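User: Good morning. I'm curious how HDE would be positioned relative to this chain. Could you predict the structure with it bound?
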Amino acid sequence: MTGELLKSGLEKAEMMVGGEQNAKLAQFKVNTKDVTSGNGVITSDYGVKQVNTDDWLKVVNENHTGPALLEDPFAREKIHRFDHERIPERVVHARGSGAFGTFRLLESAQDVTSAGILTDTSRETPLFIRFSTVLGSRGSADTVRDVRGFAVKFYTQEGNWDIVGNNIPVFFIQDAIKFPDVIHAGKAEPHNEVPQAQTAHNNFWDFQFMHTEATHMFMWTQSDRAIPRSFRMMQGFGVNTYTLINSEGKRHFVKFHFVPEQGVHSLVWDEAQKIGGQDPDFHRKDLWDAIEAGAYPKWRFGIQVIPEANEHEFDFDILDATKIWPEDLVPVRFIGEIELNRNPDEFFPQTEQIAFCTSHVVPGIGFSDDPLLQGRNFSYFDTQLSRLGVNWQELPINRPICPVLNHNRDGQSRHTITKGTVNYWPNRFSAGPPAEKSDPTSYVDYPQKVEGIKVRTKSAKFKEHFNQAQLFYNSLSPPEQAHIQSALSFELSHCDDPTVHERLCQRLADIDLGLAQRVAQTVGSPAPQKSNHPNHGKKTIHLSQTEFPGSNTIPARKIALLIANGFDSTVYQTIEKAYKALGALPTPVGPVRTPIQPASGSAVQPIHHLESARSTLFDAVILIGGNESYQATLSNNGRAVHWVREAFGHCKPVGAIGGAGIAILKTAVGTVQQVQIAQGSSVLESFGVVTAGEQATLGDEMMKQGSFMTTFTQVLAKHRAWNRETEGLTTMV
Ligand code: HDE
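Assistant: Good morning! Here's the predicted structure, ligand included:
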């Protein structure tokens, strides 16, 4: 009976996946209502229509004043419900946002796994991804320096599979028993709950010093990875080592990877801090807007696979979550892609109530003896009990799309009504039996051989903590290395205990002596004179963002087109049209939001004025150019000048067209003599600043090779002009 039920459920799920709506979205229909459509009126939660929802029931005198009555069931219900609206926020990763999407398998991985989702290329699997910061509370800012969560729930035909990953491939600790310590040390300090959503304080850095195993990870958190430009531009990593089991029962170790098609890009620290105040929801809105605009973010899904027999062939332990599997040793095999294409309908029931468990894997996928993963497998389910209650898997967002049948019962807020007189197995009706082992859609445990003694210890290779911290640092480009140095200097400067500075600078010497000495000098700490672990000088591939393959793209990049009365309409229209066609988001910005008159042609209404959005919120700025009025308006506007100056300082592509555009540019960044400026009909790129002389500005000409548009597009695709920093230009503005 169960077999049939399961089969029909699977067929149904399969049908729906292939149909107009995916199975998960179809399932939501039962629980969804639309308050803005239809003729509904307000009722109480128990269904009675209400005629007055503004006045509490009272006993009033002739002046219509008097005490409110406790008797009023409508008022009481409303207040009761409000009083209990909040649930505990996640103990970590409290702030996050997410979206729905799909997974498509491009190449079967049946040689290593029997999992349907990784072997059946005809399937499209619904999914939800929640991105998050780790340390801040629910209301903290998006752009803080922190690890980002990258948690994926695949609603597969064989049950839910969760990859609860991060945007950084390693972790601070090797054993789950240390997790409360690292999180206590990282979150706000216990005596005054300061600071919010930052690691720049004594306790965090004290912990890092006390745990050499954290060295590799803290180098990642001090790198640009911890200040991503967008959720859409982050890599995702499963971090822990899982296993894949194929239909012959053979097991491989695996790490999961997601690589963004939008490129891997970050903010700069000054910008991240400013956006924290200017637009605390920067990442949340960016994801929402991209999906609403149809610019669906995509990631390639890949696996790194190591046969069971090769487990001990590496100089690191492949079960140690503080280590990567360098891609020159174990290449990533890309087998699928994910796309996010639908925003949630309501934040709380979907994004807040989604609950992930590393222990949720489907047939063909298993765990390893990674001690961090083993502890995580316990923790996630446990935390959902206090956050959402024991029946959390019945919540619409968490329900699998395949049938669920078992003898678990009761508990708070139980929704399911199971008919029948038995709630145990075995029973006299043979109702609700276990699945057959031969059924490939059922989970069969891998018969792992285990023998040993019961002790608290780690393998010898777990005790080596510096090789990969050095490997990471060495593999970065000079600007990325410089950013780590600045980040460490910032963080340590916020620690007011000199012991913390001194110890940490000693620790940095274990990664790179030069780095340690430079940081020590900046924070005013004694400079280490020798390293106990001299830098081995080795590098590996794909750790640097600036050199990350395939990162140079422009879709969904936000370009501010600065206009003011007297702007050049032809130039504006050409650029706007061209960038829209390329999938970027050109946005007119003016001194005010009332329509702006060009020198000739129709007026344009800016989407932002210079105060409502700063250049920090855009990827690039173009001074469109125009007549004297355009030039005077913007050159004499301090905010406009600051806009361009700040964009230059943040290494963003800056364009200036014609005499007027160039004049404003010079007012903003004139102190930087090294930037070369175009003249006459030429177009020039210099330090990511693209200028077009007076005669180079005409419409069609702009699209040709060597024109403003093609030159600016190349600069834009590179994201930032880092040579401004390496050549010291940014310190001059
Ligand atoms: Fe988590 N982690 N974690 N973590 N984690 C949680 O589960 C935990 C770790 C990660 O968007 C909690 O539902 C332990 C590594 C993400 O809902 C909690 C250990 C990685 C999210 C928990 C780790 C993560 C969480 C809090 C050490 C990257 C947010 C709320 C062994 C691979 C998921 C919740 C979401 C959330 C425990 C370490 C990623 C308490 C014990 C390593 C993305 O259960």
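The first strand starts at residue 96 and ends at 105. The CA atoms of residues 447 and 634 lie 72 Å apart.
Let me know if you'd like a different ligand tried.
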